[in-house]
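User: Hi! I'm a student and our assignment asks us to look at how structure tokens line up with a sequence. Could you show me two examples?

Assistant: Happy to help. In each example below, the sequence comes first and the structure tokens follow. Example one:
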Amino acid sequence: MKVKKLILFLTLISITFTFSQNTKNDLSFLFKDLPFKMKTLTVPKFPNKEFSIVKFGAVGDGQTLNTKAINDAIEACSKSGGGKVIVPAGMWLTGPIFMKDNVNLYLEKGAHIQFTKNFNDYPLIESNWEGYNQFRATSPIMGKNLNNIAITGYGIIDGAGEVWRPVKKSKLTASEWKALINSGGVLDSKGETWWPSKEALEANELMPRLRKENKQLTIQEAEKYKLFFRPVLLSFIECKNIWLDGVTFQNSPAWNLHPLLCENVILTNVIVRNPWYSQNGDGIDLESCKNSIIYNCKFDVGDDAICMKSGRDEEGRKRGRPTENVIIKDCIVYHGHGGFTIGSEMSGGVRNIKVDNCNFIGTDIGIRFKSNRERGGIVENIWLSNIYMKDIPTDALSFNMFYGGFAPTDDSPADEKSKSAKAIPVSESTPIFRNIFMNNIYCDGAKDAIILQGLPEMPIANIELKNVNMKADRGISIFDATNIKFENVTIASKEPIVKIIQSEKIFFNNLEPKGNFNTIMKINGEKSKDIFVKGKNALMIKDKTILSNEVNKDLIKYEN
């Protein structure tokens, strides 16, 4: 009897283990009740073969250069039909790693891949940066036109970004700034930004001028400025079936993870880290990608954390490849310019995005939509739900159609922009933001709760916010918008709770201001009309609404 019980017990353990193994990477639950059509993604599968980098001569002492050994292991794995390339515990110094088809680069616990600080290891190549085709230094992790690739496990991948990035004085303490200057490099003319070389500083001034003049450097000319052309840490271009799982990606020279023109991109359980002051230190930039999942990941970075892009200005519009069909769930963002961001390079369009159950803690902006009049492109069909934000220095929710390339804390306020904004003719370079739905949005502490800033010639349109509860210094500001619906919105802020400027078809159902106010709502602009306030507090709000002289009071309706 004891033997039978033991056999039964072992059988149950085996079944449980097998079940957990088979279901660990089952992501089908993410596709339940999706508001758009998207094929169900599965993680890539690989043959049960292993190739240890040690057998190819790698030495994990932090001193030996293992570039050849690691790439030889990847090449052998791919040529044999695929499998796992094993990186054991240790400190593995290396130059660029080139992924190949059907390879899972697997980092065991304790594994640390450290990319070199030798700029000669990263030759200039034709690539893409911030939506433009241009030269860049070779990325530490590269892949182009590949199928079925993965980087998984438990280890750390460090991009040695500190030797590439410029640093602003305002972002360091006095002792940190002094140490940085003493390390070498040069300062700009104002003494406000440190650059790793005088050539990188020169290129920072040269490249914008060349672009305005429609001129380009040859690759031989660009070589002089290599340190300016700092790479993203991971660059996958035109690849299919990508899986990143469990690994920590940190300290990138520019953006951290950059899938470009890829399909079927899956991130699970990944940690993405950059110093908070890292220039262009984005977390992940999905650019012109189709069918992606970002699940249970953590970000603590120096720029936008989870960002959707699709090319810049005319180049992006000609490419015509939107980022579409993306599920983002159960993620945490600590520092970043934006927790979840669309733009500003979105000229090829962004559509069909679902973001659910995410925490943004101390991000400069919580939910961030940004563009400008040069971009063009359509952003539409975006769903955000169950977003929890705390201690946001600027806007909890921001639509900024006058984005000028500044960090959120440096950007001019929306009301300043609106004073000088005049309509211009609509063209292919006019960005369109529409059909965006938000439900269960919370923020404990921000400078502004909500800013909706459209363009006079192209208002942002069809935005719904339901079940919103925010505490901020200022409340809701609406500029150049149409068909905006608020339902069950509670705002604790200074007065007025709501400012409406040059906007129409604005609906409030159950707006609840927290506190005692003389003024709850201010409405300005001759284009402001068809504003409806109903539900609880409607008549109280009516008594505490101020209309400018150009507003027709008959077009403002209140109903309990």
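Example two works the same way, sequence first and then tokens:
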Amino acid sequence: MGAINKNSFKQLRVACLYRVSSKKQLTDDEIPMQRRACSDFIQSKPEWVFVKEYIEGAVSGFRVSASKRDVLQEAKSDAEKGLYDVLLVFMFDRLGRKEDETPFVLKWFVKQGIEMWSVLEGQQKFEDHTDDLTNYIRFWQSSGESKKTSMRVNENHEQMAEDGLFRGGTAGYGYKLVPSGKFNKKGKEVFKREILPEQSEIVDELYGYGENGLGGKRIAKLMNLERNPFIPSPTGGEWTARAINFILSNPLYKGYPAYGKRRSEMGVFTMQKPEDWVESKKQIPELVIIQEERWDRLQLQRGMRAPKKKSTVERGYHINTSKSPLLLVGMVNCGYCGAPLTTTYNQKKYKLANGTMQVWKAPKYRCSGKASGKDCVGQTLYAQSKIETVVLDEIDQYLEQLKQVDFAKEINSFLKKNVSSDMKELKKFQSELIQKQSELEALTAEVTKSIMGQSSFKPDLLNALMDQKNNELNELTLSIAKIEDKLLAKKIETSEMELLRKTIPSWKEVFDSAPLEKKKMLLAAMIDRVIVKKGDIDITVKLHITQFCNSINGSETDTLGRAHRWQR
């Protein structure tokens, strides 16, 4: 074979683009493989000369839009400047996997006069409508494969979670890893979690603090400074609010492993919000450290505590976690101006016989509105003993009445009135969701026919219909989420009723021996608000407890919703 005469043809400057989707692929041999394949392909073309390469590491061509991919934008800018004549990739899906975007990216390069080549698929031209169809179908299939791969991965994670198998990372505080006796496709034995008794006791302790109304920062401070002996955090050092909050929101402790707690964006792993985690559908009893009802109740409680977090749940605890020595701060308001009653101190100094100065200090309720200059005709200060004595006496009388209630009957009545209609609505929305998904699939299948001229639908009309259908699906998904939240709240409320039934006989004993924070929690679970005026107190209990009280006297009037008189 004679020598090639380089002057007999025009040389074409070639740029290569390599992309991998994950950080793991970046550390493997994926990029060198693509580079070698492209280099060999260039060598087979005597008229081609390599001039530049573009490397995208850990960038998903399915999730990340072309406009946000800096390397791809650089390649487009260089194409406009005429810095190369050919763009070569290993496969065209290296340009991306978005069926509604990437076909047009490829066509854009061709319109700039750039030849588009793939090592495995050859050249993509646009000479007639058949080329457009081939181009579209390629990325439509590529996008579908990405979705299927994601579905397969999620399903695999779900099945592993339900089987109790470990999927990587750390076991989680309160657990250790032990051999499972099962092997993966590579013949390597996989692990499973097992409860560590000593750490599970700490988890139970943390949940107890959470139930007493303490937030992550206060629990961390207690664990670091006040607990004796000191117990190290999961990292081996001091406890942080982040570590506490993670434990208090992790469904693993009720026996439901979750995945998706971290997500990779551009190769960087970030922690996701608990509501975005994917929870196993099946409970693993041997992993339960915190009973499910207790776990669910705490989530509702903590969700309603956070002022910046809007919940679709319409009811929840009114939690008081102030450091005040007064029991009702956070639940009590002035009956004249409506302002909260806060804490102040009456302080006096006196000298003992030995000459030592002694300070006497007593907490009092103070109208914050009047103290700040608000127009209020009420008094500024209220004695702690007068307010709290009346409230606690009335609560004791109230609980004595509740002992006579048929709780089983009332719970069944509550479920019938409040849950049945929501369940019907949920099933209706779920049925509509399946129908809309079917309609969207039909429209998607019509796209290919439209491109080939075999459909009565024009592409623009199909796009509009698909956008409309996607909007309807989003609205249905949101509606379903709201109803599921309502049902969860009612499930918690029902469990509270049952819990109340069990605790009524021992409530006073528990309350009297409980620490201050626990006393506040016990009161907050029953009291909606306390309105104080000079000479009277109005106490309103929470709605579901009121219903029980109404069943005793057959009246719609709240037994504790009346005025309670006392003299100042």
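Here is something you could point out in your write-up. Residues 338 and 369 are 8 Å apart (CA to CA).
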